[in-house]
Amino acid sequence: MIHAVTSCRSYMRSPVVVLSLALIAGLSGCGGGDAADAGSPRVNASGEVTFAGKAIPAGTVTFLNPATGNLAVCPISNGVYSSQRGQGPNPGKNTVMIVGQDKVDGTYLWSGSWSTEVEVDDESDYDGEFTVNADEVKPFDGKVLMDDD
Questions:
Q1: Other C-beta atoms within 10 Å of 65: how many?
Q2: Which letter, b or e, does each residue of 93-129 get, where b requires 16 or more Cβ atoms within 10 Å of its Cβ?
Q3: Mapped to the 3 state alphabet, what secondary structure does 84-123 carry?
Q4: Domains in the chain, please, with CATH?
Q5: What's the confidence (pLDDT) of residue 123?
Q6: What is the mean pLDDT, run by run of 10 residues, along the chain of 149 residues?
Q7: What is the pLDDT of residues 36-58, one digit of tens each?
Q8: Residue 83: count of CB within 10 angstroms of its CB
């Protein structure tokens, strides 16, 4: 069962934050392995992601469960994201962070990441659609690291 999105935040300051979280997850074992290895149950996650009405070509959808500290990083390909079996998010409240990129040259579609809060049910896989609107994010200015202005 999917619960409604509870809130929406515009963006985090830099894609580096999300990429750093993904790196930490990979090094610490979060977001990987099966539920028995992770110590917390995981569900599979999949769905569609769009930006300004068009499918996001590439990027990541990252689920962060604050109760467990676990991350699940799902790659985006042609507007669809999917976790590998046993490597999806933990049930409960999750912050979802999305970074969108052009598939051809890897250019970011916007600065930082877009985020929202979702509730992941423990009785079924998570199937969620995310729509990023252009007025919710800062246009990409060609800089990966941004000043705190």
A1: 20
A2: ebbbbbbbbeeeeeebbbbbbbbbebebeeeeebebe
A3: CCCCCCCCEEEEEEEEEECCCCCCECEECEEEEEEEECCC
A4: 7-131 (2.60.40.1120)
A5: 81
A6: 35 45 43 49 96 96 96 97 93 96 91 94 92 93 58
A7: 344 789 999 999 999 999 999 99
A8: 22
